[in-house]
Amino acid sequence: MTGQSYTIEESFKRIKDEIAQAAVKAGRNPDDVKLMAVTKTVAPELVNAAINVGADLIGESKVQEYLSKKDEIDLTRCKVHFIGHLQTNKVRQIVGEVAMIQSADSVRLAREIGRRSVSKGIVSDILLEVNIGKEESKFGFKPSEVYEKACEISEIEGVKIQGLMTLPPFDATKEQTTAFFSNIRQLFIDIREKKIHNVTMSVLSMGMSGDYREAVIAGSTLVRVGTAIFGARRYN
Ligand SMILES: *Cc1c(COP(=O)(O)O)cnc(C)c1O
After folding, report:
1. Residue to substitute in 61, 213, 223 for testing ligand 1 pocket (most ligand atoms within 8 angstroms of CB)
2. CB under 8 Å, gap of 24 or more: what pairs does 104-107 form?
3. 225 phi and psi, to 5 degrees?
4. CA 162–ligand 1 middle distance (angstroms)
5. Which of these, 188, 226, 227, 229, lies nearest to 205 by C-alpha position?
6. Would the CB of 208 count as within 6 Å of ligand 1?
7. What tens digit of pLDDT does each residue of 35-66 get?
8. What is the set of domains in the chain, with CATH numbers?
9. Rounded-to-5 percentages of helix, strand, coil across the chain
10. What's the pLDDT score for residue 167?
11. Using a 6 Å cutoff on CB, does residue 207 contact ligand 1?
């Protein structure tokens, strides 16, 4: 990535334009695709810089990191979704702090989110994370079990399923990624047509820096982009 030579503003605007172009190419309304700025490892000043140029949704993937940054982030103009793997013992700290937990990857986790939400008197919006790459190491539901698990989770008090989230294997080719995306889009439609009580299939979260155009063409309603906005992440 050579993104460092662009400002956050230039990158953000270029990605927005590309998303709009991909949407139009696919016969979709550009307004139906949300751009999330993924701000894990990004310092609060730079998160605010993105908010200043129009980012109204950010994604964080570590509970501790987010809680330590949030007071310095301008949350009056921006919503936050949690997108990382969530351990059950951290659920209590994040429930009520974010507008959505996109990474609900087990029934056990959904139960804990529900339990903590009920005790705070709220309902938490969640997405079911689908492990479409069928990799052993990754979190999420297998495509074949998503419908059944959605039915099970729909009964849990304190959570509301709003859609699906996925990330393809990082080593997939463009063709494989495109096929993954269209498979999950079909799954999303199939589940929506089943009209499960208390389940809304309105958010299809897929697409990252390397594949957001393909994701939009395949029907994504929310792309999660970090590196292409902020440059390569530095972990320390
Ligand atoms: C880090 C991350 C992203 C963003 O990845 P980039 O390749 O930097 O755009 C998207 N989704 C999830 C779940 C992530 O953890």
Report:
1. 61
2. 104/128, 104/129, 104/153, 104/159, 104/161, 105/129, 105/131, 105/139, 105/140, 105/141, 106/139, 106/141, 107/149, 107/152, 107/153
3. -120, 120
4. 20
5. 188
6. yes
7. 999 999 999 999 999 999 999 999 999 999 99
8. 8-230 (3.20.20.10)
9. 45, 20, 35
10. 87
11. no
Local structure of residue 40 (DSSP, 8 states): T
For residue range 95-122, list pLDDT tens digits in order. 999 999 999 999 999 999 999 999 999 9
Are 133 and 180 spatial neighbours (Cβ–Cβ below 8 Å)?
yes
pTM listed for this prediction? 0.95
pLDDT, tens only, 185-230: 999 999 999 999 999 999 999 999 999 999 999 999 999 999 999 9
Secondary structure element (H or E) that encloses residue 160, with its range: strand 159-166
Q: Compute CA distances 179 → 171, 185, 210, 217, whole Å.
A: 14, 10, 15, 11
**Nearest residue to 129 via CA among 153, 112, 155:** 153
How confident is the model at residue 140, as a pLDDT? 94
**pLDDT given for residue 97 in this prediction:** 98
Instruction: Please answer whether residues 97 and 70 qualify as being in contact, where contact means their C-beta atoms are separated by less than 8 angstroms.
Output: yes
Which of 14-28, 84-98, 134-148, 153-167 has the weakest average pLDDT? 134-148
227 lines ligand 1 (CB under 6 A): yes
